[in-house]
Amino acid sequence: MKYISYYRVSSIKQGNSGLGLEAQKSAVSHFLNSSDKLLFEYQEVESAKLDKRPELLRAIQHCKNENATLLIAKLDRLSRNVQFIYMLKESNVNFVCADMPDANSLTIGILAVLAQEERELISKRTKLALTELRKKGVKLGSPQNLTIQARQKGTEAIKQNALNNPQNKMATLAIVGMRENQKFSYRKIAKQLNENGYKTRRGKEFTASQVLILYDRYKTHSLAINL
Questions:
Q1: pLDDT tens sequence across 149-176
Q2: pTM here?
Q3: To which H or E segment does residue 146 belong?
Q4: Which residue of 43, 107, 132, 158 has the fewest C-beta atoms within 10 A of its own C-beta?
């Protein structure tokens, strides 16, 4: 197989220091077999919120020219924007994520929707936190409250809360598959999840209503993206 790899770091500092980049290159290296060929490597310094990425566009075009597969270390390095992932799929270039080599269009679509939801939740939680600070009389415009470092730390803490909780992600993958492929009822899905050892984010067993919430959340975001 012929591959062209794409790496993304979210800041110039990360790009210069190799922070994050080395981990991505290591993941790609472990993915490749001895018979595979890595034709070229593209590196982008860009925010995950922005979909205009010249290096990625070059990598896509390179893949088309060489009839190669685009290789990305982690799915979340594509973008947290669902529309962007769909755009990549529609480019007719084969791509694979080193951390999810067996992922199909359904699983990638589900994870993309969940990633988009995480981004929206981060924004909502940040706004709520700022509102609470205003109620307490905190002057949000003062330098000590709005330094770049303070904002980065606050955003990163919220982000990690979302990203470090994989239970709902994995459960949603299973729920969508059982609901859409096997036409299971919500009660039967909950029973199957519990028998297979799935837990809610609070470490409890699933109920039919919790299954319904996760499935509706997935469908709502999917519909919003496709409108």
A1: 555 666 555 544 434 456 777 888 889 8
A2: 0.52
A3: none
A4: 132
